[in-house]
Amino acid sequence: MIRFALLRDLPEVVSIYNEAVDDRFATADLSPVTPEQRMDWFREHDPSTFPIYVLEEAGTMEGWCSLSAYRRGREALSGTAEVSYYVRRTARGRGVGSALVRHAVTEAPRLGKRVLFGILLERNTASIRLMERSGFSLWGRLPEVALIDGELVGHLYYGRRV
C-alpha cells in the first residue's frame, strides 16, 4: 500500500534514510540525521504539491519517496520536482523503489508537475537501473563533486517529462 506520509511516520522515514547514509552509495550525507533535524524538511512536503509517499507491506514501512521543489520560489520552475526514494535494506530488490517511483510519476500531473528528475551518486548502480527502467534518461553529470570516505564521486541527473 502506498499512502501519504504522516508526521508519526517521520522516525521510520529517518531510520530508512540513515541506512542509506551508512551504505555510502545512495546519499551524500555522511552522518545520520534525527527526526528533529528533518522536521522542517517534512513540513515543506505538503501532500497537495510536494508529497512524501510511504510504501507499507504487512504494517511495515519498506520505503518512501518524496517530490521536492526545484529552486523553491521560482515560479517558472514550479512544474519541476526532484524525486528521491529510499528503501529499507531488507526490502531492496523486491520492487519497492520501482513501485514508489512509478506512483510518483503517475501522480505528478495531478500535482501540476511536468518534469521530474533524480540526482544519483554515480556509484549507485541499482538506482541508475531503476531510473532507466522508469523512463528517466541521463540529463547531466557533475564529475567528482562529492567526497565520500576519501573517494571523489560524481552526481548524475536523470530526468523525464510526465
Fold and architecture overview:
By secondary structure, the protein is of the alpha+beta class. The chain has four helices and seven strands, in the order βααβββαβαββ. The chain has helices at residues 10-23, 39-43, 96-107, 125-133, and strands spanning 2-4, 52-57, 60-69, 80-87, 115-121, 137-148, 151-161. A seven-stranded mixed beta sheet has the order 1-2-3-4-5-7-6. The longest helix has 14 residues, at 10-23.
**What is the N-to-C succession of helices and strands?**
EHHEEEHEHEE
CATH-defined superfamily: Gcn5-related N-acetyltransferase (GNAT)
Strand content: 35-45%
Largest sheet: 7 strands, mixed
What is the fold-level CATH name, i.e. the topology? Aminopeptidase
Write down the Rg.
15 Å
Shape summary = globular
Oligomerization: single chain
Strand order of the largest sheet: 1-2-3-4-5-7-6
Q: What's the number of extended β-strand segments?
A: 7
Number of helices: 4
Structural class comes to alpha+beta
Domain module count = 1
Quick rundown:
This protein has 162 residues and is of the alpha+beta class.
Notable characteristics:
162 residues; alpha+beta; Aminopeptidase
Explain the layout of strands and helices.
Blueprint: E1 2-4, H1 10-23, H2 39-43, E2 52-57, E3 60-69, E4 80-87, H3 96-107, E5 115-121, H4 125-133, E6 137-148, E7 151-161
Parallel strand pairs: 4-5
Antiparallel strand pairs: 1-2, 2-3, 3-4, 5-7, 6-7
